Fold these 3 entries.
Entry 1:
Amino acid sequence: MAAKLISLACIRGESSSASYGNLSPRPHYPSMPKYPKGFLPLEPEKGMEGPESKALFSVVGMTCAACAGSVEKAVKRLPGIREAVVDVMNNRAQIMFYPSFVDTETIRETIEDVGFQATLVEDETNEKSTYVCRIQIKGMTCTSCSTTVESALQAVPGVQKAQVALATEEAEIRYDPKVVSYNQLIEAVQDTGFEGILISTGEDRSTIHLKVEGLRTSTNSMRLIENSLQALPGVQEVDIDPELSKVSISYKPDLTGPRNFIEVIESTGSGHFKAMIFPQGGGRESHREEEIKQYYRSFLWSAVFTIPVFLTSMVFMYIPGLKDVMDTKVVNMLTVGELIRWVLSTPVQFIIGRRFYTGSYKALRHGSANMDVLIALGTNAAYFYSVYSVLRAATSSNVKSMDFFETSAMLISFILLGKYLEVLAKGKTSEAIAKLMDLSPDAAVLLTLDSEGNVEREEEIDSRLIQKNDVIKIIPGAKVASDGYVIWGQSHVNESMVTGEARPVAKRKGDSVIGGTVNENGVLHIKATRVGSESALAQIVRLVESAQMAKAPVQKVADRISKFFVPLVIVVSFSTWLAWFLAGKFHGYPKSWIPSSMDSFELALQFGISVMVIACPCALGLATPTAVMVGTGVGASKGVLIKGGQALESAYKVNCIVFDKTGTLTMGKPVVVNTRLFRTMALQEFYELVAAAEVNSEHPLAKAIVEYAKKFREDEENPTWPEAQDFNSITGHGVKAIVRNKELIVGNKSLMLEENIVVPVDAEEILVETEGLAQTGILVAIDRKLVGVVAISDPLKPSAAEVISILKNMNVRSIMVTGDNWGTAKSIAKEVGIDTVTAEAKPEHKAERVKELQASGYIVAMVGDGINDSPALVAADVGMAIGAGTDIAIEAADIVLMKSYLEDVITAIDLSRKTFSRIRLNYIWALGYNIIGIPIAAGVLFPSTRFRLPPWIAGAAMAASSVSVVCCSLLLKNYRRPKVLDNLEIGGVIVE
């Protein structure tokens, strides 16, 4: 968990950037130690020589967000701190630092000086205990196949969890790298009879693929390159494929990068080698395209042979002249037409249809039966009976042949056409990921700077060659090439591609930027901080990929049915043949029912084959995953990241939503709206003293006061406040400090009463008035005398009241749970239309309230943005994190609302309802198709209507069922959020 605390930091928007020292100007702390010469907190690129290090500490004793804030603040005061993230729920602190300025012992002592016990967690800082491996699996046809592979992977020692998705044809495996390697996982896949191709391995690794010209297959040549690369710091693994001249390198981006690898390779072997980024084509899309081409080629070749077979059996027999040619005897009763059909159908059965034999063998070898088994049995029954019939005619002078060669050939052709259309449609279900991946620009302009920061030269490079701490130039209209922060220039950046926020965001020195977004006007120089798999875009892609891999609980029904489906169909098929055969043998129906071209055995055989091939388990297996894939993809494009089928299924059932107040219903950016003084003193002097005390606090209300105080010092961009001595933060109450030899106490009424400070009646009335206006009153005492009240307001989000009203119309109950005081909480609740309120709630109380509602029978969603919301987000049936909130909240949530718009709560619920109605429709179609189709194929209508389904029509219908289910899911791509939400955008209010 802790390793992921900063994984989505760069998608959080401007509101969160202040939490990270290197991304925006940090506040001035009066007691902060001096930085070494050349080191500036705003410009970490200067003076920070040497590699960064990461340390994870266990911090015991933290109870709330204020505790975490005090630890984070204390650590950030130290020189050489790159980043500090404190997780109060897991009692962890993750610190990024420069060892040349500070060491882990100093950091540990600093945390203990704050009052908490700290221990360095050695093993977790050095190596993750779990890697995530993704493998492309080729050859799966139905849920029976995916279940077989999943069971085989689960049985491998060291595998903690394995998920195999039929729709994406991928496996995601969580495994312990100390016990098992990804090569062993691929072998386990291949042992089940399917082809496994590695997509990625290990979330904490970056991997680059290079093409090396001049790479010989000699052992010395390969060993020379491998040893040279292994000698580089940060290189974890080198894999060389001599056939493709491909070198794959896994590395730590903090220590090295692809340009270093190219330089080392080209300087090795006296310049015989030339290295470059390996051409695109080794990824998921290329495998999908290759699969589409394979099915297309197979279908075309099958059609080339099948069309003449169809013509000779169904058309030519009705054309005078051609009929005579077809009926010409070759040997005894064997005719030209039968011989042509035999010759042409044989390559279709055994060469083009070979995939069904291999698929059947693989399935049966592992004790399961899949769609390939049904197809192989049906086509073989038709083909070999036809061979028997033809040979009997060739060896007899009076027995005519009744062949079904057209049945086997046309069956295979229609099934291949269906599979081609299916993979074509399935490819469109993952378009959301492809679009996200396409956001990254192909090229970037790399700047080389001199010691004074002046540009020496510019060079255009492949964007995949960008390394950490590179300086990149972004011209107007160009895409930002990498996550990072601005070190020079001003501009506006359109971040809608990633965040869904259409309004361009102003960027200046120190502001963070996201790779893949578009620079609109000015030129920017950015310093790359996250590259490759660490980037925000890569994190979003990974989140959407994981969501599409996760199975919805409703899919378990289909998986259970699929286990018994194929064996049951074989039994029903054999029973159908036997029933019709015995009925014909013992004259159970008139001979006039038998078509002139066949006998009773052949009629029974056709019924049996039709039952076998019409019953398709594929449609059942694709019903849920294809809808989930499209639904999560559409959600991502709308700025709603849904973490899988479980979240979707729970969201559509939600009938009660618990809202946090600050940052969720309100803007989360408190502002000072009023000041009342009870002593004659200048307002500037008053705020000088209060800001001096509050600048040391991380509380949002304290920041609001400091920001307001800056207005009295307009001549200074970052004013220096008076020195605050004996500073003490009282969690949940306020702060105390000595400023200019005056004792300052700033906080709520309970703090004043604890300190025995008299609160005059006037102040009491003002507090009641502020709470009635949904404001928070902060009392200020100087030298133990109350001198003023500061009223702070956190404005409501413009659409809050409308969202609550719409939820009521959707029969969803809304409740507010907040840590704020009762007066403010009730006032806000009344304004937005919420009837039930819980105020002054600690994090554990929020989680308890959620559990109470669940015990009352509600399906509960929790919407929050802060660390203190994390327990409730986890406890709820569906946790929804506001995208601009903390990383811990985002990690704990099931759904992330990236745009931080409250109306996206409705979008998430509405999308999940639409997705599940589509899943139900898919199941109705898939199951209903088999319930209706199997009896018709078995000949239920034949006695009364003489209607029967020839096997090749049954095969075409079977192929169409899978295609129709996928197409039904694809209709979700046309999803539009409820029209009532479109009117809410007009009232947008932005608080800077």
Note: The mean pLDDT is 79.
Entry 2:
Amino acid sequence: MPLHLGPFVRWRSGLVLTWICLFSSGFTFTGGEHVATVTHPLPAAFSDLLPHFLVEPDDVYIVKNKPVTLTCRSTPATQIYFKCNGEWVHQDQHLIEHDVDPATGLPVMQVKIDISRQQVEKIFGLEDYWCQCVAWSTTGTQKSQKAYVRIAYLRKNFEEEPLGKEVALDQEVLLRCHPPEGVPSAEVEWQRNEELIDPKTDPNFFITVDHNLIIRQARLADTGNYTCVAKNIVARRKSSSATVIVYVNGGWSTWATWSACSAVCGRGWQKRSRSCTNPTPLNGGTSCEGQSVQKSACTATCPVDGGWSEWSKWSTCGADCTMWRSRECTQPTPSTGGKECQGLDLQSLNCTSEQCPQTASGAEDVALYVGIVAVALCLTLLLIVLVLVYRRKKEGLDADVADSSILTTGFQPMGIKPTKPENSHLLTIQPDLTTTTTSYQGTLRSRHEVTGKFSVSNGPLLEPLPNGSHTLHNGKLPSDPNDFMNRLSSQTYFKTLPRDVNTSYGTFNFLGGRLTLPSTGISLLIPPEAIPRGKIYEIYLTIQKKEDMRLPLAGCQTLLSPVVSCGPPGVTLTRPVILSMDHCSDACLENWAIRLKKQSYEGTWEDVLQLGEDVVSEPYYCQLEAETCRVFTEQLGRFALVGESLSMAAAKRLKLLLFAPAYCSTLEYNIRVYCMDDTQDLLKEVMQMERQLGGRLIDEPHILLFKDSYHNLRLSIHDMPQAHWRSKLLAGYQEIPFYHIWSGSQRTLHCTFTLERQSLSTCDLTCTLCVWQVEGEGQSFTLDFNISKDIRPLDSDFLLMDNCTPALAGPSAFQIPYLIRQKICSSLDTPCPNGADWRLLAQRLKLDRHMSFFASKASPTSVILDLWETQHFHSGNLNQLAAVMAEIGKQEAMIFLVSDGEC
């Protein structure tokens, strides 16, 4: 056994000089084999330094039969030897190099040894084999870190290979892969038709942490052969190919129009056809079931030719010595394409001299002229009376419109011709809202002026005002601007408005307007003529806290929208207003039963509408878009959207937000992950809360579909640099219960990951956050940032930059001027045989799925324009609307051109 030098270098005061002499004389220690020889004594100036390592041996893998080399370098050092698995390595196996550090003058020693595969297998088989080096100086010894030598390998057979599948279009596909056993662990990638799949460039693919491949929505282009590839430093293995076939089931096209009746006159047949092309079956998909041709009996009405009636009797002889007689084409009247009567329907005949009366002149002519003048005077007087009556009525209109030109044209009556935007010849004139000749006398007050006048209560729904309390005739407004809020604070219906919610309100009359809650996606459009003429309403819009509402949910029901109140309830509306609010469903009505709920006066919630089963005669209608719900209602109140899943495929959109402290002066660092419904009001609430907590957004918001599978949501952090960071979480992941997310009643669900850095100088953090639903979809987010200095351009303020005005009254609230709107409605409301009416407008604006609702209104065009105003409030383009009007191709399109005289 070699002689260990440890005991000899534990100095005692009486032996220091003796050891220095021994080392300087080249003394050799032996203990069964040659161990150490001192040939390079240290200079006296550095004799009291311990050696420190410049290079330490690192973990290595033996690939096949190629030996590996371990290197150790230290200064100042008199000897360096390796020790493997507790035994000294023989001196002959060391490759020693000496050098001098030019900066310090200290001696530098470097030692290398080679480790073969046979050495590792002979001693420990496939177990861990380790080595470390020991360095000596005249002062003492130092040991390096242990370096593990492992034999690298990769088995040939996969533990689980992917299997081929046939899936329908847009269906989710899961291909499983468990790579072969290997050291180091194999990395996995996927190929389609021998081409690498990159989920970063194609987000339709997702590779899970356990190497499975998920195709979120199968496309026709995803048909192909999929291969799982495993590789490490030893080898690269490919699994057998799995063939994925994406098929498309056929669907019928719409029925063509009925053909003309086969019979020209009498009983015949007509038919219509459809084709299996919507879509066409592909890749083995099922063909359409049913008939492609339908026949129906028809009866063609036979044409009836016209026939003359008998001649009438001759008239008396006239002053021109002519008498007349007539006949009509009524025996029979021509119908269904029959021919008209041929010949004259009027005959004249000269009278004889005895029958012809003598012509008269003089006094009779004078009487005729006097009669004509009298009639003209009467008509002139009648016209003057009508003008006076019209002006009196005009002066009796609402006092809040100082210039009647806003009602007749919607433009400034100054004769100034505005500039016309390009390609907008149909909608050319915009209202001039800056002139003082058209002033709106209503009041618009900001929320903070009356915050103190709201009282908190969880009472029933807003009660109607007493008779006349919400109406001001002839535009008479209170002299005190705060009188309205003082009056409302005493009413029961206003006591349900809490102090800490966002609220907008304003004064409106028959010209309409708009209320908006900035940065929440919630707005209320009050169309023109929705409020009766002569009425002035103070209307408000607010968000209610979900936890205060106690909305009853049963079974698989979930809250899909914020709870929104608009009022006061009980006011009279002559046409529906439009309430817009966000929702978080996947908008697939096949998987949902979505209901619009309204709170009654007693405080109970009632279903007023089920989407997909809308009855157009009811006072409610709901249009569900991808992220927004638009509610048409003729009754104000408190509304919410509730969904009930019909299958486990139903999913809610969750928004994932990652926050961390803006400044960190301790070793602990917290990352907060919010999992909330994807609605703007919740996003705004979390942003404001984090701003108060001093947090910053460390990644862009992400969307996750959370399915009704009864599985919880799990969150975990991986791939942290262990040398600098560690997680203080005891478990491998955190979990949010399914019901807490699905109910939608908890507003700001989040998990906190507490990390600890080894030193205050550590500022760079790199890790991976995984969020997934158990046995469901998931997402991984790579985080790489400096915790002390945020150099990324992303800032939480960009999500709160909605600077829209909370209340707009009158023409300024609308994109389409008042006069243009009236002319569009008068032109398109009347049905046209060739379809160039409101139906074609709805089709061009992609609103034709609501045809039955539009048709139930007195002015379908007006409702279509209301919906267009709501959808394009921020991005409205009158040129685009003008182009749509031009596409309709009506000859009457010229009525939309407004001349200078009309302005």
Note: The mean pLDDT is 76.
Entry 3:
Amino acid sequence: MVKAYLRYEPALTFGVIASPESNVCYDPSGRLLLAGALDRLAAWDLKRGLPSVSFAPSSSSSSLAVFCIASSPSAAVSSSIASGHADGSIRLWDAETGACEATLHGHRSAASALRFAPSGAVLASGSKDCDVILWDVVAQAGLFRLRGHRDQVTDLVFLDSGKKLVSCSKDKFIRVWDLETQHCLQIVGGHRSEIWSMDVDSSERFLVSGSVDPELRVFRIRQSAEEGEDWSKWDVLKLFGEIPRQSKERVATVRFNRDGTLVACQAAGKTADIYRVLDETEAMRKAKRRMHRKKEKASAKSMIAEGNGTVIDPSPAQDLQNPAVTVTDVFKLLQVLRASKKICSVSFSPSNPPRGCLATLSISLNNNTLETYSVDSEKVSKMYSIEMHGHRSDIRSVSLNSEDNLLMSTSHNAVKIWNPSTGDCLRTIDSGYGLCSAFVGNRFALVGTKSGTLEIIDIASGSLTEVIEAHAGSIRSIVPIPDEDGTVGARGFVTGSADHDVKFWEYQQLQKSDNDSKQLTVTNVRTLKMTEDVLAVSISPQGKHIAVALLDCNVKVYHMDTLKHFLTLFGHKLPVLCMDISSDGALIVTGSADKNLKIWGMDFGDCHKSIFAHSDSVMDVKFVYRTHYMFSVGKDRTVKYWDADKFELLLTLEGHHAEVWCLTISSRGDFIVTGSHDRSIRRWDRTEEQLFIEEEKEKRLEETFEADLDNDNEYRYGQKDDAPDEGSVGVPGRKTKETVTSADAIMDALDTAEEELKRLNQHKLEEQNNGRAAKFQPNVIMQGYSPSDYVLNVVSSIRPNDLEQALLALPFSDALKLMSYLKEWSLVPSKVELVCRVCLVLLQTHHNQLTTTPAARSLLTELKDILYCRVKECKDTIGFNLAAMDHLKELLAMRSDAPFRDAKAKLMEIRQELSKRSDRPDGNEKRKKKRKKASGES
């Protein structure tokens, strides 16, 4: 019988607050801050410092990192949050529930820029493949693709109520696109290096772009141009001037606040410059002062020159009442925000700022931290900071206690205690650079540091109780000594260090301190001297043997009681970085920097098998308790599950985005926990689903074949041209496995429907000829549908984003069959839009064949009249409904109990009217007379 194993699947990911690759932005309500956390989105409540909504992808696509985030300015659309991923896919999320509404495939490389239109119904995405794609958020489908840039698209901005789009790229150019005519209006140059970011203010007066240049470039937008200015017919952007920057690093992000009075320029360093944008009155006043100072300097120079007997040509007269406003008159440096670490992204809050400040600015740092600042004219003050839920650097060790309800992780400056079931951080203790760790019961923990110290931590109080100078080099391993009955860590523990020593430690009696709390102390009882640096130590579960991995690529095994040499395991070509002994003491597995796992017998030290396990160094390996199954992790970012008896790879778990340094397994083997360089801690749970080795092998071969096939299709006709057509428009989607499957489903449905129609016609002929025929038996596959309804059901089940590519894959014969059903489908009111879309794609694709096929001409003539009438009916219905809703809105506004929707606007009108009255000279006297008259009548 074929042996079956139980599958492990990803269950929980925690420890990441904000990825350095992704930007941050606020949700449409302005209450939550969205940050990319590797393959998912995290929505943080800044005031409470807790995650609010979890935007988690499906397990099948868990390894796709989030590269960019955008939120809709309008919360009316359900899919108001979008995220761009490493494979070029765009995901649309519901801001309230955190559910993934749709996945859009169109880009061939990682998405690099996202921006919603002001209405929130259209989304623009830019990518490293140099293309810009416009998406219909409501229909969840692509509209068109804009080609023209010759390098990665870095930022996007909508203008003119979403009718125009501005894109910038690493090719040093800014392009302005007309979305109605789908062509490039203007190409703006001037930057001397890659353009990294740009933004436009809310009133669309200015567009600011930043690059590696030492200044920001400011452009005037045509809608805000004053009368009399010289604009060419097609120019949308006109250079206004350049603003000198404070930082020498390149610009990473440029963002305006909600009302356009502030603009933040974040450099690729630790600073962000915040500029004040003055209105027209203040800018004119500043320009007049500048001209006045200039005139005073000129007059002073002329007086000095007259005293010296020289003559200076008078400067041309300038209008002091209406001077020319320059960019420095409008943009004024307000504050410079200096952070403790490198800033990755900035975002202004769209909600109203607290009283006394101009705006609220949130930033993400590259040390896994989020900070929020209040900006005012005097200073920039920190308001909130989110840092407890993750380490500042990569995680070097993880360990579970005996009851598997506490998890400890170490990094370069802190130890954190987690709840492995929920991912909540329970304690954070400052420490040294922890390379290894172990629990002592449930009360204390041990940490071995890079400096050679041994730290004892009291978990209950969350304090560091004692620091012992244990070794002269870094401590690489802490292994509890098991008793003969199998109790782990009851007697003491062993440490291995780079100072060539293996030291044995025992726990001393718990001593009472001044505050009557019990503390743990340890004493060194034995030392085993080695000839090389000790990289790993492992002890057999019965406590008989101790194995020591040395820098000379060998593993030496000693008797625990006498410390006499027992075995030497040699065969690795590079140093052994990790090892473990099975619970029955029969096998020892070693993992090395030579990418191999070697399984040895503990009786004679013979090598049972050498396995090429990972594509990079193996960093940790552990046996599952009471089995010969083992897990290994490596620098190739994967976790692998092995059978050490059959030497077979059972499962490959992918999810980490950087090197995996460590792993730990629960005592029952029902879950494992891994820690990585990407600062994430992942838990993988054992499920009841069975897996078979042969099936997993076939699945891995299919995945490899499909990946190679995708690459072949991508470059079948050569590499993509580096110089695309100027402002060309293309199809938004791309060919994927889903689109191929959808095309096959349509063709199968057409063939099934055709066979069913033939059977029906044959049955009718038999009935006419014989007068009486047997009862017709419909095809079971069609599930009771008629042939037309069956094909319609299959076409309707295809995702809107995949429909166009699926129709493009149909041959002409199947396209003609499909068009024959459109006349009948158009009679269904809810399918008119689908019918029009299918008809349009097929017409554009097979235009030449359709026009030259006599049988198709009559079909096209009928469809022309029918579809025109059906679309007109739907349009009239929508117009009637809109007019009816406007009428209902007016009726509600007339009712006295209706909600006062325009309260803010009405309040502003009342205040303006009162201010006008108070400005009149006799306004106060009239009010006094009215008050006197009212008091007399009363």
Note: The chain has a mean pLDDT of 86.
